[in-house]
Amino acid sequence: MELISCADKIRLDKYLQDKLDCSRSKIQKMIDDGDILVNDKVVKSNYLLKLDDKIIINFQDEKIDIVPENIDLDIYYEDDDVIVINKESGMVVHPAPGNYSHTLVNALMYHCNNLSDINGKIRPGIVHRIDADTSGLLLCAKNNEAHVNLAKQIEKKQVTREYIALVHGVIPWDNATIDAPIGRDEKDRKKMAVTSTNSKNAVTHVEVLERYKNATLIKCKLETGRTHQIRVHLAYIGYPIVNDEVYGRKKQDDSTFGQMLHAAKIGFKHPKTDKYLEFEAPVPDKFKEILKKYQNFE
Length: 298
Hints:
By secondary structure, the protein is an alpha+beta fold. The protein has three domains: 57 residues, RNA-binding S4 domain (Structural Genomics Hypothetical 15.5 Kd Protein In mrcA-pckA Intergenic Region, Chain A, Roll), CATH 3.10.290; 95 residues, Pseudouridine synthase, CATH 3.30.2350.10; 110 residues, Pseudouridine synthase (2-Layer Sandwich). The protein has six helices and 15 strands. The strands form three sheets. Strands 5, 6, 7, 8, 9, 12, 13, 14 and 15 form a nine-stranded mixed β-sheet that branches. Strands 1-4-2-3 form a four-stranded antiparallel β-sheet. Strands 10-11 form a two-stranded antiparallel ribbon. A hairpin with a 3-residue loop joins strand 5 and strand 6. The longest helix is centred in the middle third of the chain and has 12 residues. The model has no long low-confidence stretch (mean pLDDT 91).
């Protein structure tokens, strides 16, 4: 994987932590092992990047061959530069240790002749991600030029990303903004948490759509895109997402379905034409089925 630095006077490990969504300790180990080079040279973790530095990243797991698989995709838009997929709940976005098949990437590799390779061999085309058990719209790039353009739009907060969620509890206010930094949970490194330690700013805008006796249907608009951001923020303010076994209640409402979170809308400027495109996808049938239980509860 190759990155061209768009930062100046920022530590290499911190810059890559933000870009790759990895822990800083993992990044530092890769640097120490010589798997990360700057301008084809070995550097230290505290190397201060300069604009246009060339960063080469060799992921060890990229030695694994990723096999294209004929898996049905719900395609909302496609051309020579981008493809927008409505991902089903339960599908992992890209291969990872222990799970190298049946992912969205496997399906994309079968469907598309070309995909961007900026994020490496196991993440072709992937510009941003949604959790495996979150359903909804995902934007992918078919070439590197499109990928760079779309990534910059996300970085500059120019991409519209709206989610629908069902949460436990009755939210009393109509609108709110959750502005709380997110980083690795110090007690459980597999989880994220609102913390001031090694965290990144995270902002989620919330709007109440409907209130029920013991739950609330809401719309969330992302201003930033941190790992598990919406799930962490809603649990932090005391309204965890229904069916979220990681950040919500231990007992799930339906073990056959993931958290009640759906990426309902995505909007962006086409990387080649600069025309604004926006797409909306309804919540899955299973989401509606679970939602109806709360609507009818008295």
